[in-house]
Amino acid sequence: MRKCRQPDDLMSLADCSQSNAQSGQRRARRKGVRGLSSVLLLLQALLLLSTVARPALAKKADKKSAAAAAAAPDYKTRVPGTVERTLPIRSHSLFAPYVDADLQNRWFDFGGTAIVNTNKHIRLTQDRPSQAGWLWSRLPITPTGFEIEFEFRVDGKSNTLFGDGFAVWLTSSRATQGPVFGNEDLWRGLAIFFDTYANSRHSWAFPQILAINNDGTTSYDHGSDGATQSEIRCSIDFRRTDVAAKAKMTYFRNNYFELAIQHRAWDEYETCFVIRNLTLPGSPFLGFTAATGDVSDDHDIVSVSAYNALYHSPSANAPKRSRRSSSSAGSKFLRFVTTLIKWLAILVVIGVAAIAFRGWKTQRNNKRF
């Protein structure tokens, strides 16, 4: 219909008014459609921008995460994969009665204040001051992957003052008594200290379990309980436990070393620490030593079980799922923006459809008259 401009137009006044109204509605619809089209184009541009920017932001976030991980080593997270025990290592396993008819053991030597109770344990120190005892394997460990589980007991008469603790050694030398928990200083290899007496104040609780990998040039710092030499530690109350206290050491050369402790419930091991990319001396000896000073405790080794071990890495799909599930703050924000844009686009499409339907309905009603 044409628009009425003069009062003397041939059309009636009512038809003229209706024609003007319809023309205004059509112009309004065209403007609305053009506006919605502009909004759609803007949303598409934002969606394209977020798609292009996502890889760059994700890469930047990954770099930040990698830098943070390099700055602060993680000694708590377990290495993914499974460990399979294979053949037992008889030369590094020890059980009651511990000695033969000649009161000797084919695979282990003991000395210092160590006492063998053929029914119960090998007691490295009694609950008496100034004692030092040791138990060492006669042969080095030759497998490049192994798992050693040992049961121990630390207890005494006192409930408040006790010490000093015991140590486990995987070192290149053996059976040399000295000032570091009953063993020599300046060792070469890995030492794990089950320390029950704090010589200074610390921000963590005692007893503590501390690992120090030494190249033979660093002397143990008694005053700081080794805190100035290593951050590889955990606080676990392994003294006077309700269940048999056990430790499980798992090692794969050039891969990792893990220590886990059973101290709360049977067959429930708590990871103490994990050391990645650790390389022990070529064929280390296995040793257990303990010492007491002005304070004392009983330090017992009950049994030792050693096995060859194989490491099975996780499937190839597991890391991919892990990477997809783990996201940084930047990627979360990008997903939020993308989702918001998609919902806005859906709402705009619904709005355009509603306007088009309304215009079509109005036009159909006008044709009836």
Automatic annotation (TrEMBL):
Ranges that cross the membrane: 340-360
Keyword Coiled coil listed: no
Classification via SUPFAM superfamilies: Concanavalin A-like lectins/glucanases
Domain of life according to the entry: Eukaryota
Gene Ontology molecular function terms on file: D-mannose binding
Biological process annotations from GO: endoplasmic reticulum to Golgi vesicle-mediated transport
Annotated InterPro entries: ConA-like_dom_sf (IPR013320), Intracellular_Lectin-GPT (IPR051136), Lectin_leg (IPR005052)
Entry's localization field: Membrane
Principal location: membrane
Keywords, in A-Z order: Membrane, Signal, Transmembrane, Transmembrane helix
UniProt topology in membrane: Single-pass type I membrane protein
CDD domains in the cross-refs: lectin_leg-like
GO cellular component, one term: COPII-coated ER to Golgi transport vesicle
Positions of the L-type lectin-like domain: 86-309
Matching PANTHER family: RE50040P (PTHR12223:SF45), VESICULAR MANNOSE-BINDING LECTIN (PTHR12223)
Protein name according to UniProt: L-type lectin-like domain-containing protein
Organism in which the protein naturally occurs: Mixia osmundae (strain CBS 9802 / IAM 14324 / JCM 22182 / KY 12970)
